[in-house]
Amino acid sequence: MKDRQQPKIFLEEKIYSDKQKRNPIGYIKLVQYLTGEAIPHVEYKLDEDHHGKGIMSKEFPKYLKLCKKYEFTRLIANVKADNVPSIRILEKNGFLKFGTISDDSLIYITDLKLTDSVRAFHKHVLSNVNFCLRT
Ligand SMILES: CC(C)(COP(=O)(O)OP(=O)(O)OC[C@H]1O[C@@H](n2cnc3c(N)ncnc32)[C@H](O)[C@@H]1OP(=O)(O)O)[C@@H](O)C(=O)NCCC(=O)NCCS
Q1: Domain limits at 23?
Q2: What is the CATH number of the domain that holds 82?
Q3: Which residues does 86 contact at the CB level (< 8 Å), separation at least 6?
Q4: Domain count, the chain
Q5: Which residue's C-alpha comes closest to atom 34 of ligand 1?
Q6: pLDDT of residue 116
Q7: Within 13 Å and on the Cβ side, how many CA atoms surround 109?
Q8: Inside any domain, residue 126
Q9: Which residue minimizes the CA distance to atom 18 of ligand 1?
Q10: Which residues of the chain carry a pLDDT beneath 50?
Q11: Which among 76, 89, 104, 110 is the best mutation to test ligand 1's pocket, defined by most ligand atoms within 8 Å of the CB?
Q12: pLDDT at 76
């Protein structure tokens, strides 16, 4: 019997604390929820004792290059509105705030194929319109 709750996982990259890659401390992955939209969600996490050391700032752009290489170019991320470090990671890597999905959750999107000028235009449009996807 198929488990409808199991998302498909693409391109899971583990993050290690050591060059020998013995100690995984986090991951970045693309997840596609079978019941949701076809665009993959990017999910990322580090163990708590490795937060705030610049690790994700370094790893995330490398991961996006990998996504582009494998032609996963349109990505979504859900983030809690108070998750400042996560929002910084998304915004400094070109994700744009698309709207809200609940009182405390934001949705960010990117298209890695966009040129900087098209991205700037999208940013302008999105920052002037607040989309509310679900109430
Ligand atoms: C979100 C997460 C991946 C960020 O990774 P990280 O390696 O700790 O982040 P970095 O140290 O690279 O910092 C990223 C940015 O956030 C800022 N930041 C880090 N910790 C912060 C804090 N506690 N408060 C405010 N800003 C913070 C950094 O200054 C940096 O911004 P800058 O580039 O403008 O200087 C990590 O905190 C985590 O795994 N959290 C739990 C899981 C999670 O929230 N995942 C995301 C779900 S959407």
Answers
A1: 8-132
A2: 3.40.630.30
A3: 44, 77, 79, 80
A4: 1
A5: 88
A6: 85
A7: 16
A8: yes
A9: 85
A10: 1
A11: 89
A12: 94
Whether 2 is covered by a domain: the verdict is no
Would you call 90 exposed, middle or buried from its count of C-beta atoms within 10 A (0-12, 13-18, 19+)? Answer: buried
pLDDT of residue 125: 81
Residue nearest atom 3 in ligand 1 by C-alpha distance: 45
Give the length of the chain. Answer: 135
Position 2 scores a pLDDT of 52
Q: Which residues contact 104 (CB under 8 A, 6 or more apart)?
A: 80, 81, 82
Cα three-residue angle 113-116-121, rounded to 5 degrees: 105
Q: Amino acid identity of 54?
A: G
Query: Which pLDDT score is estimated for 127?
Result: 77
- Report the distance separating Cα 17 and Cα 40, nearest Å: 27
The Cα 13–Cα 121 span in angstroms is 31
